[in-house]
Specification:
Number of helices: 13
Mean pLDDT: 94
Order of helices and strands: HHEHEHEHEHEHHHEHEHEHEEH
Strand order of the largest sheet: 2-1-3-4-5
Shape: globular
Radius of gyration: 20 Å
């Protein structure tokens, strides 16, 4: 019974559509005015950075920034940007690169370190955080604050969707000001965000029941793999992350092509939960279809999370909202991954984040992620 396995991750997932409505107007206003028109016109390339959920949100928004701004966009690990990225590529001209740094707490050491270095070199730095007084905010040129109500502890769901909404709205605004499309088109993109939230809410009961069924079937799995290509790769990354945080078991992420070259040879496929995330507008759609067909021939059970899962003839389909744009699809795709992880943890009486016991005793926002030496090179 689902009622016996209700859990904080499920409750957070259920609250996502209402959260999107609550924060939308405020974030839309903040992203609209965070940069001046001359600053937007000066941009030549953009780097998105973050750790954990924040890194995943950056991956989710990368294609949107590329398509809407028509600028070169990179998603980088903050450690790479802080300590390895060539100094001569930082600020070769005013406001370039533009660094969009994500951290819900605003205290993650590597993100602060990367922003500090880039700002010193002359880059334009924008912090996306829920704490405007945090180290990240104080280290950045600009701050987009996400005002979120406090929620019960669970591996990131509400903060993750808030970061995605912020990034999508920022990308839409940049493209609009740079005249990549009309104001009318920009508003259609914004409306698509709100429609996606509404559809997620309308379909939650069906999605929830399906994810509980999947979790019940695979609760004893010893290995988990998540597959997605292009924008959908971010959702695969998110899925593997939630299994580690909620369940504490090994999980991987990959794209459809790499699966054929590497994961195809997994000896433990019978003990593996495989989840393919695939929006049907994704340019890799044909490869995803081939993957699903191959898994069926192998006798391996496959969960397909898609706006039209029937196209994959999957035994375990999970339908998500059709956003209308492949670059927006990650906004609808992550809820099933969170629900499955939450239910598997509940079914196994597993405490999130290893119960913060023993060597894991520190709060997740301290020690290993924030209490680290900051080195500016």
């Amino acid at each position: 019974m689902i009622g016996d396995c209700d859990n904080p991750m499920r409750r957070q997932a259920k609250s996502v559509p209402s959260l999107m409505r609550q924060i939308y107007q405020d974030i839309e206003f903040r992203t609209r005015y965070i940069l001046t028109t001359p600053e937007i016109y000066s941009l030549q390339n953009i780097i998105l950075i973050g750790c954990g959920d924040s890194y995943c949100a950056a991956l989710a928004a990368k294609t949107a920034f590329e398509r809407l701004t028509q600028l070169p966009v990179w998603v980088m690990n903050p450690l790479d940007l802080a300590r390895y990225y060539p100094a001569h590529l930082l600020a070769p001209s005013p406001n370039n690169p533009c660094i969009v740094a994500l951290s819900n707490s605003g205290q993650v050491a590597r993100v602060v370190e990367a922003v500090t270095r880039c700002k010193q070199k002359g880059g334009l730095t924008i912090a996306v955080t829920s704490d405007k007084r945090s180290r990240l905010a104080e280290s950045s040129d600009k701050v987009v604050e996400m005002v979120l109500e406090t929620a019960e502890h669970a591996p990131g769901i509400r903060s993750y969707v808030a970061m995605m909404v912020t990034l999508y709205l920022l990308a839409i605004r940049l493209g609009e000001v740079k005249l990549r499309y009309t104001m009318e088109t920009a508003n259609r993109y914004r409306d698509a965000i709100l429609r996606t939230g509404q559809t997620m809410e309308e379909n939650f009961h069906e999605t929830d029941a399906k994810c509980f069924e999947i979790a019940s079937t695979f609760k004893d799995s010893t290995y988990f793999e998540f597959i997605g290509s292009g924008p959908d790769f971010a959702t695969a990354w998110y899925g593997h992350e939630k299994i580690y945080e909620a369940v504490g078991r090994p999980a991987t992420y990959t794209d459809a092509e790499t699966w054929f070259h590497v994961s195809f040879f997994n000896r433990e496929s019978a003990n593996t939960l495989s989840v393919l995330t695939a929006d049907t507008q994704n340019p890799a759609h044909s490869r995803s279809i081939e993957l699903a067909t191959k898994m069926k021939a192998m006798g391996q059970r496959l969960v397909v999370v898609s706006n039209r899962p029937e196209e994959f003839q999957a035994e375990l389909p999970v339908r998500v909202a059709d956003c209308g744009y492949d670059w927006l699809a990650p906004l609808a795709q992550f809820i099933p991954h969170a629900l499955i992880a939450g239910y598997i943890a509940a079914l196994n009486s597993e405490a999130y984040h290893r119960g913060f016991a023993g060597v894991w005793a520190d709060d997740p926002s301290s020690a290993s992620t924030t209490d680290s030496q900051i080195v500016v090179v």
